[in-house]
Fold this protein.
Amino acid sequence: MDEETDGIARLARRTRIVLVRTSHPGNIGGAARAMKTMSLERLVLVAPLRYPHADATARATGADDVLERARICTTLEEALADCTFVIGASARQRTLPWPLLDARTAAERVAASEEETAIVFGPEQSGLDNRELERCGALLRIPTGPAYASLNLAAAVQIVAYELHMAARVAVARAPETPLATADELEYFYAHLQRVMEAADFLDPENPKHLMRRMRRLFNRAHLDRNELNIMRGLLAAYDKLREEGIER
Amino acid sequence: MDEETDGIARLARRTRIVLVRTSHPGNIGGAARAMKTMSLERLVLVAPLRYPHADATARATGADDVLERARICTTLEEALADCTFVIGASARQRTLPWPLLDARTAAERVAASEEETAIVFGPEQSGLDNRELERCGALLRIPTGPAYASLNLAAAVQIVAYELHMAARVAVARAPETPLATADELEYFYAHLQRVMEAADFLDPENPKHLMRRMRRLFNRAHLDRNELNIMRGLLAAYDKLREEGIER
């Protein structure tokens, strides 16, 4: 097993997909297949309307094993037992004060954590109700076009499973076990970068914030881990050192 | 229409999804729905085995309009007429000398280009044949787990449509119209970065390439556009300038 495969396997062991009150058994089969293509295997069904069902088996194709090993629970509480990170998929804008993450960011958080994680999908028509959403620590939204946001349930599971898979690969492509830089560490870095850019006469005095916004956007996209941040800060420090030597002379 | 929506609309206008010899009409409907959720609307069917069909309409749900406006062609050539960028989806490792892109990278290329683009999906069982793949300028692969790579066709279209949607959003989040840095430009940047890191005694003489690999990984992840690259190079030049002043004194 190579390093990348191992990263995904470790994520898969602590990550379950929970489908709540699913109406169409075909979607349960489709979700099982979607999971298996991305190496996920822990499926939990909460009070499915019709299950087991021939449509579920038909849509699962080669993922019958995921379906067979699916846990069936009567309540969401039972499905979430021992989870420390619960993410609820929600298509609608909610007024709950939970952090709302897009699918990619949510997957990165899961990959960067070591938590026992559940990602919860509600019924096809209505989604999770408020009581169910309150059991979640974060909400996940899949970005869609403005005209038609009605993702099929199995398609939504496919996108989330794919993003988890991609995030696990990227997480392994980093130095192993290196934590991501925290928001505070990034703020120190941006402040340091701004001082160096000012010293190098880089910032437009008319619009000093414009360039910094660009730099923030760039490094936010890159999701620096702590080692990478330290290298970048080392480069800024090397500039400061040269500059102090210049001033002393 | 806000800027982001407009970016996706522009990509959608010049991007078609081509399904070749699809066996199951349900997959055609599922693909139409998958496209519509991500604002894509140009579906082309090449010699579908059974179409029109009630299963297609049933799976399309609210995307009947995409289905109704789908073009039906008898040959792939006809479907690709006037395309300047043709990407073939392929699950298998191929020996063709075409560039092989993962879905995310392919979507970024499409979003960064202004080309009339087709993304082509083969039949469920066999995929595109070699003659069809030869019509493509690049191959697209969706990363899957090692144990089971058999993505459902509509699920594959969903992932690709989602990545196109995400890439169009990111492309708009950059300065508008700024092209991505080319591979050559990135190589100049890495060479310059290495010279600065050497001058600053940053590279481990035992293993000078280790840190550079990390830096490459970081900036490859960030997908720099040309403006961002110029800012980074400007910072390196500011270091060089200070250093020369120090040496002159």
Remarks:
- Residues 3-173 of chain B form a domain with the Alpha/beta knot fold (CATH 3.40.1280.10).
- DSSP finds eleven helices and seven strands in chain B.
- Chain B touches chain A through 63 residues (CB under 8 Å).
